[in-house]
């Protein structure tokens, strides 16, 4: 009976992969502290196809896995290093060296890569890694080319080809052009998209989500990762009233579309299920960036 049950699970997983969207685990999972090795491991165990992380640079040019360019949201930095904050009261990753940052149990990109490959080998299940390069423009103000350091790190692991289990994304779309044209990377690239007023970068998202803008990216990137509110239109009460042209145009130019961020705890269980169904069956997105990969699966 046990053998039959295990065989059923194996076949079920194969069938699911053939019929379901790609599931990208945003920062690992929402059930453990974000972006920790434990959270990434949980996402791998749940069966997420891709695990998404963010990287920033330390003062000594080490790639730190953390969502923001400052430490205050996820560490007790003010207790450990008093008076290291800037005039805005925040403590920035770039002001600390690796030795100092490891006191907060943050991981490095190297550790994440080795964790992923180790889990892939141990389980026989090939998950991929999606690396978001945080604020390249900010890093360039300190004469740091974070993209060059990311690619150099990946090159050390022989991760250079489009067929390798690595994808790179950033909100600064011009940086993707730089990565492709100037740095000569063959890795798959995703363009993150939000609204201009958020000032996530200097990129003009209004242009890049137009048909002309998407066409201009067709030789640079392989997919779009837009805020889900750019993919569908909502009424003032949050009900979907139709789709935008973004997914249609993206598919027209052979891009995959992975909207973000789908969190079950922001909806009732039924409404979240209906939302996911609508995006999958009606909008026909290619996958979901989600804090709850187990729920989407």
Features:
single chain, 297 residues, alpha/beta, TIM Barrel, 10-stranded mixed β-sheet, 38% helix, glycerophosphodiester phosphodiesterase activity, glycerophosphodiester phosphodiesterase, GP_PDE_dom, hydrolase, EC 3.1.4.46
- The SSE order reads HEHEEHHEHEHHEHEHHEEEHEHEH
- Radius of gyration of CA atoms, rounded to a whole number: 20 Å
- Total tally of structural domains: 1
Structural class: alpha/beta
Termini Cα gap? 25 Å
Helix share, percent = 25-40%
Average residue-wise pLDDT = 94
CATH architecture: Alpha-Beta Barrel
The shape, in one word, is globular
Low-confidence stretches: none
- Name of the level-1 CATH class: Alpha Beta
CATH superfamily (homologous) name: Phosphatidylinositol (PI) phosphodiesterase
SS summary, helix count? 13
Strand-residue fraction? Answer: 15-25%
CATH fold name: TIM Barrel
Q: Can you summarize the main beta sheet?
A: 10 strands, mixed
